[in-house]
Backbone:
């Protein structure tokens, strides 16, 4: 009985496809669009130096090259990653690790699974529907023009937030973490994507808005800040988001508040809106 090593060697020489598989590994690690590496693969490979293989293997390897050029980028390995590539991959690795560690309420059976109902209440407190409905109600009830101005701008901010988050989610198309259970209340179709967290953008923007435009006692101001942090944290704890989705969302919410301040709607800029 031949030893496994001998029989594998015999098999290799009898089967030219094994060489092609080896080629496939090599070509996977080179840049398919780089003419130099394509030339290297087709002319310098051991397969091509053997005359007996020329006719059949060149068409086979051409087919393979075509297939590999069609491979999605994430299936190919880069030989010379840049510093930015390495930094991004490291950030992504830390992000995924931390996201998994912090997803303690992702399921009922998770380590903090019993806190899941409470976290879902926090989730609803940062949802768009209660905020938009609440602003519309306050606008209807408000009897001072200063109050109407503030609430109208809050409503404008909430709508702008939905649009901007929807656009970024639609462009980035990052999937939610695998441990997330999609049992969220009232979502749009883009909400299957996770970058950035809409709850985090809203929490950051609304809290800044309230701190700057409402007269609040110090304990209430602290509560508003804690609420924004808790809503953001709960996104990762519920397993809805990666840490970077929430961190970016929080940053984006602050930027959105800056936009609202810049384009502040006032009776002088939009008199028609305030005549109602
Ligand atoms: C239906 C309305 C008015 C808003 C949707 C709010 C929502 C579900 C956002 C998604 O938030 P995350 O990106 O944090 O999961």
Residues:
């Amino acid at each position: 009985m031949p030893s496994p090593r001998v029989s594998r060697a015999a098999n290799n020489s009898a089967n030219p496809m094994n060489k092609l598989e080896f080629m496939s590994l090599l070509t996977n690690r080179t840049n398919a669009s780089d003419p130099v590496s394509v030339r290297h693969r087709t002319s310098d490979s051991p397969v091509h130096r053997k005359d007996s293989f020329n006719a059949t293997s060149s068409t086979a390897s051409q087919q393979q090259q075509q297939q590999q050029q069609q491979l999605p980028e994430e299936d190919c390995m880069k030989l010379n990653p840049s510093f930015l590539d390495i930094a991004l991959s490291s950030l992504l690795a830390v992000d995924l690790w931390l996201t998994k560690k912090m997803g303690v309420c992702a399921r009922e059976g998770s380590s903090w699974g019993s806190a899941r109902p409470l976290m879902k209440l926090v989730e609803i407190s940062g949802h768009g529907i209660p905020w938009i409905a609440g602003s519309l109600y306050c606008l209807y009830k408000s009897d001072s023009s200063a109050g109407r101005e503030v609430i109208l701008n809050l409503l404008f901010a909430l709508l702008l937030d939905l649009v901007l988050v929807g656009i970024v989610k639609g462009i980035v198309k990052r999937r939610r973490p695998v441990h997330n259970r999609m049992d969220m209340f009232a979502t749009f179709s883009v909400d299957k994507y996770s970058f950035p967290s809409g709850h985090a953008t809203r929490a950051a923007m609304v809290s800044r808005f309230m701190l700057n435009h409402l007269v609040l006692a110090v304990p209430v101001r602290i509560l508003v800040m804690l609420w924004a942090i808790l809503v953001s944290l709960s996104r990762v704890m519920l397993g809805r988001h990666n840490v970077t989705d929430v961190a970016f969302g929080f940053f984006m919410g602050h930027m959105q508040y800056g936009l609202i301040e810049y384009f502040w709607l006032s009776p002088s800029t939009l008199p028609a809106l305030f005549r109602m």
